[in-house]
Amino acid sequence: MTTPDYTEKIPNNVDLAGDRRLQRALEAWQPRFKDWWVEMGPQLPNEDVYLRTAINVGREGWAHFGHVAMEDYRWGIFLAERDPGRRIGFGEHMGDPAWQKVPGEYRSELQRLIVIQGDTEPASVEQQRRLGYTAPSLYDLRNLFQVNVEEGRHLWAMVYLLHAYFGREGRDEAAALLQRNSGSEDSPRILGAFNEETPDWLSFFMFTYFTDRDGKYQLGTLKESGFDPLSRTCEFMLKEEAHHMFVGTTGVDRVVERTAQLMVEHETDDAGPYG
Ligand SMILES: [Fe+2]
Ligand SMILES: [Fe+2]
Q1: Alpha carbon of 243 to ligand 2 centroid (Å)
Q2: Residue 263, phi then psi, degrees to nearest 5
């Protein structure tokens, strides 16, 4: 279960090859994702950027990463390993075995939660697509692209759940995730924050500081879901999310530090004119 299959078109640790229907459906979605990535993803040429890519999940859910050139990045489907004894932790069903299938009574609520989570992932890539042109350094550029490819993978994670567990409606919702766009007048992203522009790097650092932190709590909540596949998906996503917040924290730190230096150096409260 934990050994990802890289011989497949879609790297995964969910035995996609064992479910031909699902595999075909996701392989049909894959080229649409790639078209979206080319059209709406990072605009700067990026052949020489090396990125970490998730290649395995250990028993405790730890991710192992390898490095690949960005153009070879392969988005995959990875769930943290199943705990066969997992039980629902709270609420009306507390103590029941975690659900391996979607319970009919919560179907629409669960689908909605997954769609909203899924909608935020490509939205942030769209918001950040032009930032590469103004990257303060190569280090920052790599961090930006790293965050972008991982948000792309998070979209894959939600699309997998929609395809695997929500039938036709799920497939339609998965298609719609690539049709809505950040800031679009006709079909905007679902949450307001994801339709705002991220025009500069300070906004990006603030985004990875605050919005990704919000995302962390959101994923932390979904990780407690009684629907086990959702819980396992989010557990793995959280490993990647930690790096996004690191980018935000250290980015804001650097801006504050440099601002303070300039204020002292020029004996002014307004460091703006000094860069
Ligand atoms: Fe994400
Ligand atoms: Fe993130």
Answers
A1: 8
A2: -65, -40
- What's the 201 CA to ligand 2 centre distance in angstroms? 16
Return d(Cα 103, Cα 122) in angstroms, integer. 28
Reported as a single tens digit per residue, the pLDDT across 230-241 is 999 998 899 888
> Which residue do the tokens 């011989």 mark?
7
The Å distance, Cα 244 to ligand 2 centre, comes to: 5
Angle, helix 138-165 to helix 228-266, in steps of 10 degrees: 160
Domains, the chain, with CATH or none: 86-274 (1.10.620.20)
| Structure token pair of residue 144 | 């930006």
- pLDDT band per the 50, 70, 90 thresholds, residue 56: low
Could you tell me if 55 and 72 are in contact, meaning their C-beta atoms sit under 8 angstroms apart?
no
Token pair, residue 26, equals 């996701």
pLDDT tens digit string along 247-267? 999 999 999 999 999 999 999
Q: How far is the CA of 160 from the centre of ligand 2 (A)?
A: 18
